[in-house]
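Subject: Interface between my chains keeps coming out wrong

I've been trying for a while to get a sensible model of this assembly. When I model each chain on its own everything looks fine, but I need the whole thing in one frame so I can look at the contacts. Pasting all components below, labels as-is. Any help appreciated, I'm running out of ideas.
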Amino acid sequence: MTLEHLPSAAPSLARLVQELNKLPGIGPKSAQRLAYFIIRLPDEEAFDLANAINAVKQSIMFCGQCQNLTDLSPCSVCSNSQRNREQICVVEEPLDVLALERTHCYRGLYHVLHGVLSPLNGIGPEQLKLRELFARLSDGEAKELVIATNPTLEGEATAMYISRNLVGTDVKVTHLARGLPVGGSLEYTDELTLSRAFQGRQALE
Amino acid sequence: MPPPRMYRAEALVLKNMPLGEADLLVTLFSREAGKLRAIAKGARRSNAKLVGHLEPLTLTRLSLSRGHTLDVISQAETLENFTPLKSSLTAIARGMQVSELVDGFGSEASANEPLYDLAWSTLESIGKTPEYELPLFHFQLHLLGVSGLMPELSNCVECRRDIEPDRHRYSIDGGGVFCPDCTPDRAGLRPLSLRALKVMRLLARSDARALPTLNLDAALTQELRAVLSGTVQYWLDREIRTNSFMNQLARTERVGRN
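Reply #2:
Try treating it as a single job with all components included. I did that and got this:
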C-alpha cells in the first residue's frame, strides 16, 4: 500500500507523494522516499527547490527564433552578434543544443524541433516546430541548414522531410556525419553504420 | 523441465522506446515465438554494440536471456536492414504501418510464421517500389487472411452465390461482398467499384515478392485505401496511427516553399 492510501498520512504529505509520482521514472516507492527526503531537508533548501520549480514555470518560454527554452526571447545564442547567422543547426531537443555547445566547434545558430516525426506515435510535421523553421529560412539569411537529428529511423525520416521541403531553395542542407563512435569497435558495428562510415570516409591529411 | 534460460530468436524489430537512463525497451515479432518485448541494456549509449541492430524495421538474429518480467537481449546481429525502404520518407511511413499492424494483430508468445513472412516480404517489396502503394494494400489484405479474417471477394457472404459483376456491395463488418438480393437494407453496406474488387481479388492471389504491375489512378487508390484500411481498422478496433501520420505528411508537404 502506498503512502497516499494510508489513512494516517498527513494530506499535505500524501499530496506531495502523489505529485512526485507523476515525474517520469518515479514510482510510488521512490515518490515516498523523495517526499521523506524533502521533509528532512533544512527549510531553506526545501524552499529553494520549490522556488526553483516556481521560477522555471513562470519565466521559461520558447525563444521566438530558435524555439529553444529560454527566459529571455531572443535567447542568448540568437542575440549573440558573434554567432554565424548563415548556419542553422536543427536539433530534436533542447538538451541536444547543450551537447553541441560543449564541443565548442559550432558557432552558428540553432533550431529546436521539440521532437521528431514518429508515425507510430501519431507525431507528424504539425506537432513539431517545422513551420517556424521554414518561416525562418524564408528571409534568405541562412545559407546552410545542418540537420543534427539523431541517427535513428525517426531522426532520419525527419531529416528527409526537411530536406524534401527545401528542394529548389538556395539553402544548402547538410547533416552530421554518420559512422563509428570514438572508442568503438568495427567487429561489433552493424552493417548500416559501417556502410555509412565508409560513405563518409575522408582523406587523411 | 523449465525452458532454457538463454534462447535465440530471429525477429523483426517493430518499435523501441527509451527505458531508464540508457536502456531500450524493444518490441519484436519473432519467427519462433510471435510478439516479444525485451530490454537492451545500455543500448542508448553512443558506443553501445546493440543499438544499430535494434532500430525499427530491422530483421535481427538475437540471443536473449529470460528475465523475471522482461527478457534481456544479450546479442544482436542484423540479418536484413531494408536499406532501400529506409531511403524514402513515404516508404518509411508505409513500413511503419506494417510494424504497427503486426504489433496490433500479432499475439505475444504465439508464433505466426505466415505473418512473419508476410511482413518480411512486404518490407522488401515496399523498398523496391517506394512510391507504389500496392505492396501496402497487398499486406493489409493478407494480414486479414493470416489472421483468419480475409474478406469474401467472390461469393455473396449471405447466399454463397457467385457475385455478378457490378451487382455487388461491400460490408466491412459483414465480412465481404453481398449480392443485391441479400440483405438490401443491411447497415454498413457500401458500394465497391468493379475495378477495386478486381484489384482486391488479384492481390488476394498474388505473392508480395511478385506483385503485378498495375497503374492505379487517384480515384481507385483512394477507394482501395478506404476499403482496406477501413476493414483492417475495424478488426484492429482502434485508429491506425500511421494513417493519420501519412495524411498529415501529404497535407504539409511543400509547406516550406508555400
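Reply #3:
Confirming on my end. Strands of chain A lie at 61-62, 69-70, 84-91, 108-112, 144-147, 172-175.
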